[in-house]
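@channel sequence for tomorrow's demo:
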Amino acid sequence: MNSTHIGKLSEGTIEMKEVRKSLNINLAGRREHLFFNFIEFCFFSHSERECMLFFGSARAMHPFVIVPYILMAEVIFFRGWRYFVKLKGQVVGILAVHERMEALFINSLAVSPECRRLGIATHILIYAEELAMRLRRKRLELSVLKRNIPAQKLYKRFGFAKKEEKMWSFVLSKEV
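structure tokens (generated this afternoon):
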């Protein structure tokens, strides 16, 4: 896998039905973890006018931010699982989760900017919910930035409710 696989689909516009049939979610191997972190950085740094990155514009700080970001993600995701979401063999999304006492916590969920609004994030959430049930967790939880309104709308439609409010984010929860 290389960086040319990040969200570039060669066949142009794809229908939602076709997307659901063609999506695969695969556990990332140990050797793919740094690549996973790089893809996560790319998806967030190229989204919604870069407002999804907590620290500001990636372009202005790119050389000083990307390596520490990738290494920080390695520490944060260390005890969890990372999944690549592929459409026709190309990475279009990522999912990182870890287990808590009674919940499965979604550390990161991102979809390539070119592939948004095709139902990919919904498909990822369904997969995460099924995973939580298999692991016998009572809830699915995640954190979302307060300024990430599109994600908040998606999570609300999917049944998440506000559990806690922090300075920059909301912690949302859903019973499974």
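heads up for whoever presents: The longest helix spans residues 58-76.
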